[in-house]
Amino acid sequence: MSPSRVRPIPEGMHSLTPHLVCDGAAAAIDFYKAAFGAVELARLPTPDGKLMHAMLRIGDSALMLVDAFPQMGALDPKALRGSPVTIHLFVPDVDATLSQAQRAGARVTMPAQDMFWGDRYGQLEDPFGHRWSVATHLQDLTPEQIQANLEKLPQDMSCGT
Asked: What tens digit of pLDDT does each residue of 28-40 get?
């Protein structure tokens, strides 16, 4: 019997996969389903009902999440008083996605607007403290065109803030 050939990156996965810590991972799954059309792929609860692992699919990408387990160093953004990480999500209609996420409980922190790099782009914070940028790609631009567009903006507007 020969050993099976195992893929180093499992089927359906990408090299980079966000793995979020949430205070209330089961509720986060419900939010991501409502906000982004996530599909639940796996859920592994502990005997007390907390989730030690879950996996969703949003678009063509996986998102892993786990409940906060402070005793093991797994702290959520609210426990840390924020997160320096922003998860980027490309969607067919950024305006509709931001509205849908807001109805599901997200706080829009930057309304969608056309950006100098060719995307319509906005930002939100989900109810669990995770920050998301959401975009629809509108035009393909060269690095030179992006730079020229940036230079036309007022200095304090170059990052869309």
From this structure: 999 999 999 999 9
